[in-house]
Amino acid sequence: MVLPIVAYGDPVLRKVGKNVDKDFPKLTELIANMWETMYNANGVGLAAPQIGLPLRIFLVDATPFAEDEELSENERASLQGFKKVFINATIEEETGKDWIFNEGCLSIPDIREDVSRMDTITISYWDESFKKHTENFDGILARIIQHEYDHIEGILFTDKLSSLKKRLLKGRLGNISKGKISVDYRMRFPSMKKVR
User: Fold this and answer.
1) Which helix (H) or strand (E) holds 58?
2) Can you tell me the distance from the alpha carbon of 18 to that of 130, in angstroms, rounded to the nearest whole number?
3) At 196, is the pLDDT very low, low, confident or very high (cuts 50, 70, 90)?
4) How far is the C-alpha of 48 from the C-alpha of 151, rounded, in Å?
5) Whole-angstrom distance, CA of residue 62 vs CA of residue 75
6) What distance in Å separates the CA atoms of residue 93 and residue 55, rounded to the nearest whole number?
7) 36: which of 23, 43, 51, 62 is 20 to 30 A away, CA to CA?
8) Are 115 and 99 in contact (CB under 8 A)?
9) Residues 6+ away with beta carbon under 8 Å from 29
10) pTM above 0.90, yes or no
């Protein structure tokens, strides 16, 4: 089922997500709905807070980046078919050099900005079968994972912008929170009553 994506300004996007145990009710259904919602909005990642749930779950499908001609052949190959669910994730380490990349977010439509992040991460997480993994990712994969991980920590990519850039975006962000924006996927705005 396609769920509405929570828009900028909703308090749930500022909450640190709670851990999920393997007995979480209807977890398989929740993950399936998250995939469907993400694909419906043409996203490459989606975190549970973006559908109104302050939980430590996010998912990533980096396949669309595999067609980016500006990336090296090796990087495109690593992105092809990369599809994972991350539950109760913890970034253990961020290393390498800072690099800037233009980011956007389904909860903040029509705003894209350059964000600086470290290029390599080590992350521990459980998959949808509750098998534990600790893995290293770099480049675009690290970037997507860091962006989604921030969501379960109550952080948005706009928080990483300069104070000047934030002031310049204030009006546009305000319009998003009031629903004064046109998108081609379902959204829930802070001014709307909570849909259960």
Assistant:
1) strand 57-61
2) 16
3) very low
4) 8
5) 11
6) 22
7) 23
8) no
9) none
10) yes
What confidence tier does 66 reach under pLDDT thresholds 50, 70, 90?
confident
- Which residue bears the tokens 């534990």? 132
Name the DSSP letter for residue 65.
Answer: G
- What is the per-residue pLDDT across 172-189, written as a single tens digit (0 to 9) for each? 999 999 999 999 999 999
pLDDT of residue 74: 84
Residue type, 187: M
Please name the fold of domain 5-185.
Answer: Peptide Deformylase (3.90.45)
Query: Annotated catalytic sites, by residue?
Result: 148
3-state SS class at 129 = coil
Dist. CA 98–CA 101, nearest whole Å:
10
- Our CA angle for 80, 44, 58, nearest 5°, is 110
Q: If you ran DSSP here, which 8-state letter would residue 140 be given?
A: H
Whether 177 contacts 14, CB under 8 Å: no
CA–CA dist 13, 52 (Å, integer): 8
Coil, helix or strand for 57?
Answer: strand
φ/ψ (deg, to 5) at 26: 55, 40
1 exposed, middle or buried (CB, 10 Å; 0-12, 13-18, 19+)?
Answer: exposed
Residues near 178 by beta carbon (within 8 Å), at least 6 away in sequence: 9, 189, 190, 191
